[in-house]
Amino acid sequence: MNHALELAGQAALAAGALLLVVAAAGLHLLPDALSRQHAGTKAVTLALGLICVGAALMSQDTAWTLRLCLLLILLGVTLPISSHMLARAAVREQSLQEVAARAPVIEPDGEPGSRAGDGRDDQRADGGRTRDGSA
Amino acid sequence: MTAPSALPPLLTLLVGCALVAVALAVVRLVRGPTQADRVIAQDVLFAVGVAMCVAAALVTRSTAFLDVALGLAITGFLAGIGWARLIIRAPSDENPPDAPR
Hints:
The complex is a heterodimer of chains A (135) and B (101).
Chain A: H1 2-29, H2 33-59, H3 62-106, H4 115-134
Helix pairs in contact in A: 1-2, 2-3
Chain B: H1 9-31, H2 35-60, H3 64-88
């Protein structure tokens, strides 16, 4: 029984370690911040939970198990909050980028020409004007 | 509490996987196109730190590193919340800085 528990703990620890790598790879394989947030919070928390359970089963000691259970509870409580906040931040930055990407398309409709250079030229012209006005 | 000369293979696997995860998360932290990507990478880095603390506790056979892991988990959670709020409440055209929050 004791040996079986330790084997189960070792299996959980190895699974948690491998899942940690999978979650970190998800940061690169997923397309945008909103989907990367799923890998960064849920998968990593599952990996940490497996590692904690594995360590508790391997040690079979009250002091270890108490602390690891506290860690598990803390991870479970903080997961939905941090996941929600990160998802809101990702969605907000995505919408800001969409606004920024839409803005220059509307502007140069009247005059055909270089799209990227327009804003910079305007700024340069404004700077020159204010400098001339102040001089 | 003497430091062992060689890690057991299981803990070597755990530390190696944690180091690979750190490398991937740091690349995302540096390259991340948006600020939210960097906050997510920071969250992963803190989680890997917790995993490393559990590994250190198993190696040294002392519970002190588990207390460190607990503090690291709380710090990582609060840091993630703080940075995410900073991004959510950042002033922009549709969210002017003097608007009521």
